[in-house]
Amino acid sequence: LGFKKRKETSRGTFIDETLVGNTRMNIDHYQDLKKQIKMINLQKQDLVVLVSLKPFVQENIHAIVEQFYRNLKHESSLMGIIESNSSVDRLKQTLLVHIQEMFDGKIDDDFIDKRLKIAHIHFKIGLQPKWYMCAFQDLLLSLIAIIHEKIQTKEESLKAIEAVTKILSLEQQLVLD
Ligand code: HEM
After folding, report:
1. Closest C-alpha to ligand 1, atom 39
2. I want to staple 163 with a disulfide (CB 3.0 to 4.6 A). Which of 1, 49, 63, 157 is the partner?
3. 103, 49 contact by CB (below 8 A)
4. Could you report the per-residue pLDDT of 16-27, keeping only the tens digit for each?
5. Cα radius of gyration rounded to whole Å, the chain
6. What is the C-alpha to C-alpha distance for residues 162 and 140, in angstroms, rounded to an integer?
7. Which of 128, 125, 138, 145 is nearest to 168 (CA)?
């Protein structure tokens, strides 16, 4: 078993600076993921920027989550899906943790596994991709508003927005795949 693991590690010693750790991923998914990261130009520097934004996100996390749920009320079936599969309070808590983790600046096996699991859950509850994407856009707007408020210079603000859009894009790519 140890031998097998080592073999995986050699593939998983990430060439790409943004991917860290080993990989338990299927080789095709792994190769694709590397390309996806290249195509959206997600670089190590972006991850550093995300980590620097984390305190601002944490400061505003309750407002972000409140806005997220307020927004879902536009489509009445969504609240139904939540109430019959979970509860608003439980999901708020889940989302609160999840959004903060987007700013950990780490893309590793746990990150990928978690997104695949989230994808599976959303598929099972019948959440349509269009609503999922609307929720993401709303989340992006909340994050941009925070950046706009907290970041002083135009250059830093641009870098922050670029980093946030890249990580949200990757999230969506993984969850909607
Ligand atoms: C579960 C995130 C959009 C309804 C989850 C989980 C996460 C998550 C992290 C927990 C997965 C786990 O238990 O491991 C997100 C993100 C979204 C999003 C980041 C978009 C930005 C939505 C929308 C709905 C929804 C629009 C509307 C119906 C649910 C439900 C669960 C769930 C019902 C099941 C939770 C359970 O099993 O208790 N979501 N979600 N999600 N999500 Fe979402």
Report:
1. 118
2. 49
3. no
4. 667 776 667 778
5. 17
6. 11
7. 138
